[in-house]
From TrEMBL:
InterPro entries registered for this protein in UniProt: AAA+_ATPase, ABC_transp_ATP-bind, ABC_transporter-like_ATP-bd, ABC_transporter-like_CS, Oligopep_ABC_C, P-loop_NTPase
The organism's place on the tree of life at top rank: Bacteria
ABC transporter domain segment(s): 20-270
Name of the featured protein: ABC transporter ATP-binding protein
Keywords: ATP-binding, Nucleotide-binding, Transport
MF-aspect GO terms: ATP binding; ATP hydrolysis activity
Lineage start: Bacteria, Thermotogati, Deinococcota, Deinococci, Deinococcales
Pfam families from the UniProt entry: ABC_tran, oligo_HPY
Gene Ontology biological process: peptide transport; transmembrane transport
Family indicated by similarity: Belongs to the ABC transporter superfamily.
Length: 338
């Protein structure tokens, strides 16, 4: 082992060790200005986010637009570099790895992008798009790679002969299937699915969600499923992380979160979601105003400017994410409200 080789954290056995541990993750985007192009402010897209995922778990990441979900997903994969914090994958903090050390982990961690129109190179054939990662990681001979692409296409509901075509020859749903095949080509153990169906026609969303769910079970994938649509998350996820303005507000199992939300922001989000059972009535909470700017977020609890339970104390300190019942965490100082 060379001196710089990544150190495995041996304090866990591989069975009970989380596959992914995110600790105090931070991503600030600098805003530059003036003739010297100095940093004049920062967009605090993700601030002090911590959570962990067990092997084979599907965890939802929800929150309004701009809450930092995509930034979390991309920072974990180092598609963008985090400003601070740790991302431990199989016990190794991958934020400290060099480009070449990172290569091994790139294979294990993949992403399905939101927009299947923008995320597939229009000048590449489907075979090249899906086979690219195999080639980069020197997996198989050219013939073996072609066979693998054919198998993957069949598995995602397309035909092997589609590999000679270009992205524009496919519908949105089919393109997303190609995106899924591309993510799975190198046999990853972890997938970030960034709103994988929100750009698709409502009529085909369920098929694509079902495909992801089947593949997750077949391959025992660990999935971070980013979504707006709470119904999809409830259906597919074991646990849910709720984010607002770059911070985690609540973490609980899907069932617990839906039946017994403990954070005012989750309560408001759920009140806006349609309920399939018409006999169940839920008060609709209108969140007043827009999400504040992440350049200058409110002091203390970032949700306080829109929270109907806010009190003076909420402005003084960022609430800790604390465990209120086993496995149920919330970042809110009040225990007398929900
Ligand atoms: N490259 C960037 N430079 C500056 N600001 C950025 C950059 N990328 C994201 N942001 C800002 O960071 C914040 C979080 O963005 P992010 O895309 O992570 O949110 P999101 O929760 O994924 O939203 P959506 O639901 O719309 O996809 C937003 O305020 C966004 O404008
Ligand atoms: S800490 Fe205060 S402002 Fe924040 S969610 Fe709780 S009650 Fe609302
Ligand atoms: Mg996003």
């Amino acid at each position: 082992m060379t001196q710089n080789a990544p150190q495995k954290d041996m304090s866990f056995t591989s069975k009970d060790q989380p596959l992914l541990e995110v600790r105090n993750l931070q991503k600030y985007f600098p805003i530059r200005g003036g003739i010297l192009s100095r940093v004049v402010a920062n967009v605090k897209a993700v601030d002090d986010v911590s959570f962990s995922l067990k092997r084979g778990e599907v965890v939802g990441l929800v929150g309004e637009s701009g809450s930092g979900k995509t930034t979390v997903g991309r920072s974990i994969l180092r598609l963008i570099e985090p400003t601070g914090g740790e991302v431990k994958f199989e016990g190794v903090d991958i934020t400290k790895l060099s480009k070449s050390q990172m290569r091994e982990y790139r294979k294990k961690m993949q992403i399905i992008f939101q927009d299947p129109f923008a995320s597939l190179n229009p000048r590449m054939t489907v075979a090249d798009i899906i086979g690219e990662a195999l080639q980069i990681h020197h997996i198989g001979t050219p013939q073996e790679r072609t066979e693998r692409v054919g198998t993957l296409l069949k598995r995602v509901g397309l035909l092997p002969e589609h590999m000679r075509r270009y992205p524009h020859e496919f519908s949105g749903g089919q393109r997303q299937r190609i995106g899924i095949a591309r993510a799975l080509a190198v046999n990853p153990s972890f997938i970030v699915a960034d709103e994988p169906v929100s750009a698709l026609d409502v009529s085909i969303q369920a098929q694509v969600v079902n495909l992801i769910q089947d593949l997750q079970q077949e391959m025992n994938l660990t999935v971070l499923f980013i979504a707006h649509d709470l119904a999809v998350v409830e259906y597919i996820c074991d646990r849910v992380i709720v984010m607002y303005l770059g911070r985690v507000m609540e973490i609980a199992t899907s069932r617990e979160l839906y039946q017994n939300p403990k954070h005012p922001y989750t309560e408001a989000l759920l009140s806006a979601a349609p309920i399939p059972d018409p006999t169940v009535k839920r008060e609709r909470i209108i969140l007043e105003g827009d999400i504040p700017s992440p350049i200058n977020p409110p002091s203390g609890c970032v949700f306080r400017t829109r929270c109907r339970y806010a009190i003076a104390e909420c402005a003084t300190k960022v609430p800790d994410l604390r465990e209120v019942t086993p496995g149920h965490f919330k970042a809110c100082i009040r225990d007398d409200i929900l």
